[in-house]
Amino acid sequence: MEFTQEQKLYAEIVQIAWEDENFKKELVANPVEAIENLTGRKLNLPKGKTLVARDQTAEDTVYINIPAKPEMDLELDENELEVVSGGSLDTLGVAYDAAKKIYNLFNGTQV
């Protein structure tokens, strides 16, 4: 399995934070600046997004991260319900749309 550039960067950030207490403190206090200083590149967050880094290294604590609830239409229309339930396949487009909605439901994505 090949890792993306983002996954590699994330792994590097975590590794450095484990090894360098000063970097970890800066990462928690100002994550954008800490990452920009590490990479030498400007970090472009999507508009309206904030980057938060939390120190979760306490060995006597179990952490739960609760992600944002996905905003998606989980309702299937009549044609999509018929396709999913084994009814007629009147068009491939309807089958594709139904499959896409189900896939997105399980993967937490919107297409």
Automatic annotation (TrEMBL):
List the protein's name.
Answer: TOMM propeptide domain-containing protein
Which superkingdom does the taxonomy of this entry point to? Bacteria
Q: Which GO terms describe its molecular function?
A: catalytic activity; transition metal ion binding
Q: Which Gene3D superfamilies match?
A: Nitrile hydratase alpha /Thiocyanate hydrolase gamma (3.90.330.10)
